[in-house]
């Protein structure tokens, strides 16, 4: 009896993924929930656990293959079948060389990059011309708009020519290199036999999965500090987590001291570093500029006295934490205030679709969050129907996932309005950029004590500047100002939120 391993649900509107890394090979024994492989979508990496214990009898979708939702990835046979593939494993390594006796040249082509992706940039070559390569050994890495794609060798042999050098932009059907198969391929297994100690920990050209590399970087560890349990000793994300839990630490900072700067009098070019933008950063830049070019974006400002919100929070924060198990922050007040204002000014919660305006009778609130890899915007669905406690719990949960890089595609889609809190970084005033196709985004800022005239007297109050950027194509100035005034009123008298005023 065998069990099928299929592509899991990838998230809203995501229909396909690329098989990035297999951690197991045919014949390996697997346990329930043990990680078998990693899939890459446009924005996130998805791990595929084993649905049953047994032996990985067949891999249907190889590394680099593009697969759809629910596509068959592999087959797992029950326990009794386990010994049979194991007996064949030692004979598999030299097989490709023996089979390739024709002396032919094999082209290494750009693999399938994904729907609507037409080009990529060659970021790294792991082999040089003249190097022996084994079948499925990683030759190079390509960068697309959002993900990195590893290119394996289609056959064993010698890398006779590199056609696309590092930094070259190639289209989806381009040739990357040429492998000379045949008699020369017999030399490929030799280095491994001559130096088994070097390949025991990390075979030449082997790379860990993207999620594992990211986890290593975030933990400040090198792969030598982690015992890999994946195929050929590859490190998985769970291996990194286990090493961190065991108290692993990285002595790297002392060993990687930056090289001394060139003398001040030296040529200026010698004291500069030019680094090519990653395709991800290029895409972010393009999307932000497209937002400015497409929407008639305008920003209106106001300020809010945070005295009442701060007093209410200080009075009830201990009881709130005791009852709900989550801290009472400012974001739930702002989320509630925005939901009330959006009900009164629905065009700020709408979007343009061609020549139509789509009004939303719900609020899916995007909460911008900074992470080590950049800004992400997890979405809290139906925030207008949630309590203060539910909102705080959702923000805490999504924030933790964002910091750990565990947000799914589905959790970052479908937002109708966004709140961005630059105040946590000390920003006093800014003009946030719209997150298309949304028509509004609220910018929060630093709370700062300022002298204010209250009832003819000068008093010190904790003040915050608010900024609303909006699409002037569907939101008039009156609507934008009304929205911001309603947010201000709700925050300066939080009782209005309780009475829906």
From TrEMBL:
Keywords, ordered alphabetically: Acyltransferase, Lipoyl, Transferase, Tricarboxylic acid cycle
Residue ranges constituting the Peripheral subunit-binding (PSBD) domain according to the UniProt record: 207-244
Reactions catalysed according to its record: N(6)-[(R)-dihydrolipoyl]-L-lysyl-[protein] + succinyl-CoA = N(6)-[(R)-S(8)-succinyldihydrolipoyl]-L-lysyl-[protein] + CoA
InterPro entries to which the protein is assigned, alphabetical: 2-oxoA_DH_lipoyl-BS (IPR003016), 2-oxoacid_dehydrogenase (IPR050537), 2-oxoacid_DH_actylTfrase (IPR001078), Biotin_lipoyl (IPR000089), CAT-like_dom_sf (IPR023213), E3-bd_dom_sf (IPR036625), PSBD (IPR004167), Single_hybrid_motif (IPR011053)
Low complexity compositional bias, start-end: 80-99, 249-268
UniProt region (Disordered), positions on chain: 80-107, 249-271
Molecular function terms, GO-annotated: dihydrolipoyllysine-residue succinyltransferase activity
Domain Lipoyl-binding: residue ranges: 2-77, 105-180
Alphabetized Gene3D superfamilies for the sequence: 2.40.50.100, Chloramphenicol acetyltransferase-like domain, E3-binding domain
Cofactor: (R)-lipoate
Family (UniProt): Belongs to the 2-oxoacid dehydrogenase family.
Known partners and oligomeric status: Forms a 24-polypeptide structural core with octahedral symmetry. Part of the 2-oxoglutarate dehydrogenase (OGDH) complex composed of E1 (2-oxoglutarate dehydrogenase), E2 (dihydrolipoamide succinyltransferase) and E3 (dihydrolipoamide dehydrogenase); the complex contains multiple copies of the three enzymatic components (E1, E2 and E3).
Official protein name in the record: Dihydrolipoyllysine-residue succinyltransferase component of 2-oxoglutarate dehydrogenase complex
Organism: Cognatiyoonia sediminum
